[in-house]
Design goal:
single chain, 195 residues, mainly alpha, Four Helix Bundle (Hemerythrin (Met), subunit A), ICMT_MeTrfase, membrane, transferase, transmembrane helix, transmembrane
C-alpha cells in the first residue's frame, strides 16, 4: 500500500470516528434548553465553511479525483505525523465534549444551568474543541495527497476560529462577568501556556 493511499484511509477512518464521538453528545444537547444564542445566521455560515474545508472538499477529491493537477505523493513519515495529530485531535475532541457534557453546543449558545467548566482539558485551555479542529486540519494536511483537499481544512478552521472566537468570549463575559474574566487570566485559548 502506498503512503498516499494509507494517508487517505487514515483520514477516512478519523472522519468516521469524529462522527461516532459527536453523535451521542449532539443527541443529548438537543434535550437541553438554550437560554441565549448569538448570531444564528453568521453561525450557520461559519459552520458551513468549516464543513466545506474539513468534509466536502476532501470528499469531492476522494470521490472524483478532482483536482488531479494538485495531487502529489506522500511519504510514510507524513502519514505517521498526520495519524498522530489525528489521534490527538480525536482524543481532545472527545474530552472536550465529555468535560462540557450537556453544556456542549455546535453554535454559540448559553444553555440552561450553564456554568464555566474548569475541569479536565478546560483546566489549561479555554477552547479545547477549537484546538482539536486545528489539530484535525493539520492532520488532514499531512494525510491527503492533494493540495486543495489537504489545505482546505486549515483555511476553513482559520476562518471559523478568527471570526468566531471574540464573539464567543464576549458572550461568555456577558453571561459570567468577572468569573469568566478570571478564568481567561488563568488559561490560554487553545495552546497551554502559549496562546
Amino acid at each position: 500500500m502506498t503512503a498516499s493511499l494509507l494517508g487517505t484511509y487514515v483520514w477516512a477512518i478519523g472522519l468516521i470516528a469524529w462522527f461516532i464521538i459527536r453523535y451521542p453528545y449532539a443527541r443529548k444537547a438537543r434535550r437541553t434548553a438554550t437560554l441565549r444564542a448569538v448570531g444564528w445566521s453568521r453561525e450557520r455560515i461559519l459552520l458551513a465553511i468549516a464543513t466545506v474545508g474539513l468534509f466536502v472538499v476532501p470528499l469531492i477529491w476522494l470521490v472524483t479525483g478532482w483536482p488531479a493537477a494538485l495531487n502529489y505523493q506522500l511519504n510514510y513519515a507524513a502519514v505517521v505525523i498526520g495519524a498522530a495529530l489525528y489521534v490527538l485531535s480525536l482524543w481532545l475532541f472527545r474530552r472536550s465534549h465529555k468535560d462540557l457534557g450537556r453544556q456542549w453546543s455546535a453554535s454559540l449558545e448559553i444553555r440552561e444551568a450553564h456554568q464555566i467548566v474548569r475541569a479536565g482539558v478546560y483546566r489549561s485551555i479555554r477552547h479545547p474543541m477549537y484546538a482539536s479542529f486545528w489539530l484535525w486540519a493539520l492532520a488532514q494536511a499531512f494525510l491527503l495527497p492533494n493540495a486543495m483537499a489537504a489545505l482546505g481544512g486549515l483555511v476553513a478552521i482559520a476562518i471559523l476560529f478568527f471570526t468566531r472566537i471574540d464573539y464567543e468570549e464576549r458572550m461568555l463575559i456577558e453571561a459570567f462577568g468577572d468569573d469568566y474574566r478570571a478564568y481567561m487570566r488563568e488559561t490560554k485559548r487553545i495552546i497551554p501556556g502559549i496562546y
